[in-house]
Design brief:
Layout lengths: L31 H9 L22 H5 L4 E5 L5 H9 L4 E5 L3 H14 L4 E4 L3 H7 L5 E7 L17 H10 E11 L2 H10 L5 E3 L5 H4 L9 H8 L5 E7 L1
Parallel strand pairs: 1-2, 1-4, 2-3, 4-5
Antiparallel strand pairs: 5-7, 6-7
Helix pairs in contact: 1-4, 3-4
Length: 243
């Protein structure tokens, strides 16, 4: 795929704007049980009509209908779903949406949902930017970005989530006072996060080093964090509030 972004005026045949996606949609072939999860469970867990071909007018999602009036949280790129299911089980009075374009990760999450029995989750198996298009303004009360793709090469830094292309629409769907958590083991990702997130209308909630060196009280370590620990990279836990 080219490093150069496409003209944002370009469109797919469905009318969707062209958005470059950098990363993998699929890895190894899904196991038979994962294929079953995808076939039997995924559709019922949809937050609503997100895809352009079924919602070309970009009608906003009815989150009250989907979650029964509960406050709604959002996890952007949930990986294998450990944290998403953990938070859903810990907070049954909250509705949580997870967005993840990597189908193998989605299949892993569906297995965890079956095993845990949580019923307050919705799953969007695609780009979070498409979800931002149809989330009502100020509808999300908490968001998570946990160990996102680091894109370590300098020429690839614009691919990171912490750019205004992603942060501005995120800010639009977050309620005033909403919390945005970012966890990463990449020092330069910390730098870019602290530079870019405040520009989008957030304040960093840190008063002492322990506020970013120690995990949150309700944290569960993910497989990505465990890999970082094994490889000797320090973790950073950044907390922001939507102004």
């Amino acid at each position: 795929m080219s490093d150069d972004p496409q003209d944002t005026n370009d469109q797919h045949a469905s009318g969707a704007p062209w958005r470059n996606f950098y990363g993998r949609f699929k890895g190894k072939k899904l196991k038979p049980n994962q294929q079953t999860y995808m076939k039997e469970d995924l559709a019922a867990l949809s937050p609503g009509a997100v895809d352009w071909d079924v919602n070309p007018d970009r009608t906003k999602l009815d989150l009250n209908e989907r979650f029964g009036g509960k406050p709604v949280w959002l996890e952007i790129g949930f990986g294998g779903g450990e944290h998403l299911v953990h938070q859903a089980a810990r907070n049954p009075d909250i509705g949580i949406i997870g967005a993840e374009p990597y189908i193998n990760g989605v299949a892993m999450l569906l297995g965890k949902i079956r095993a845990s029995g949580v019923q307050n989750l919705a799953v969007h198996p695609g780009d979070a930017r498409d979800l931002f298009d149809v989330l009502p303004a100020q509808s999300i009360s908490r968001a998570f970005l946990l160990y996102p793709d680091p894109w370590p090469k300098k020429r690839h830094h614009r691919r990171r989530f912490v750019t205004q292309e992603h942060l501005e629409p995120l800010a639009e769907v977050l309620q005033p006072g909403a919390i945005f958590r970012v966890a990463t083991d990449i020092k330069d990702y910390v730098r870019q996060t602290l530079e870019e997130v405040p520009k989008a209308g957030f304040e960093w909630l840190a008063e002492r080093p322990s506020d970013w060196r120690e995990p949150w009280d309700d944290w569960i370590s993910t497989r990505y964090e465990q890999k970082a620990i094994r490889e000797g990279r320090p973790q950073h836990y950044l907390t922001f509030r939507r102004l």
